Here is the input.
Amino acid sequence: SKLLQNAVWLLSNLSRGKPRPDFELLKPALPLLGELLFSSEEEVLQDACWSLSYLSDGSQFIQHVIEAGVCRRLVELLVHHSKSVVVPALRTVGNICAGDDQQTQTVLNCNVVPVLVQCLRHNNSGIVREACWAISNINAGNVQQIQQVIDGGAVPVVLQILRNESFNLRKEALWAIANICSSGLPEQLNYLLSLLDVSLLEPFLRLSDEKLVLVALDMLQAIFTHLEQRPDGLQALVDFRAAVESAGLLNTLEDLQTHQNLQVFDKALRLLQTQFETEEDEDGILPTQSAKFSYDPAPKASRADQALTQAVDELSQGEGVLNRSVNVVLIGGGGTGK
Here is the structure.
């Protein structure tokens, strides 16, 4: 009915108000919003999902949204025929995945990863970016959760997004992969490296965005550290060094020695000094000339809050977009918890 549509629309606007309204005043609406997720009216579904996305935006509120019993239905709505419903449902799922490991697991128990993979393949770039962001939050969890992402087939799709023309999509994909490098088990990194084309990291090292340059540098350092600990580490290191050089990353690392950011300079210099100044061919090992480093898999995580303030006007018609509190990992960074 029109009255119901207007009421839910009003609730969604109250939820997104600035300054933010007292959560305790809106909390009684959560059970009703859970019921409205089963509405047959698209406008009601859309506004109910947006309300939940606003109400779940903040670690102190996530558990209340979970306790409203909405997770399974939200995952079902990720394959709704209308993007105006998918977008806010996906935003809410991403917010919940930004919570602690137990809260993230609540969504994973609803078999969300295969559905997120479908969203990663969506023809709407905003939906793809939101799905990448949700995956990156899951990957910033524990190793069991990273394994669920791997088992759900998300990693090859995320790596393909690293080839996308859109910088915004590539950026989200980089975070998702970086979190595996930071938090994953050795066999999980082996799997990632069996698929990774290292040349895809080179453009990130040339960005003006220093944070992303640091993420790419930390990924390289994490990979080298991982390979050094492998039983076949010597040959693996030589091959990976050759791949890095073949992909043009060595020249880029050398250029970063003149970078104005001291952290960037230090990390680039460390890689050059520890990985590229000593030749290994005196042991009779010849590097493999390939820009793609690939090998068969052989036999925690800190999170930092990052506010993503970029407008995503392609997500839905007429909907404003809130800043997102995103849990991501800077490899080797400080902080505890999720």
About this structure: Confidence is low (pLDDT under 50) at residues 278-337. The first strand starts at residue 304 and ends at 308. Strands lie at 304-308, 324-328.
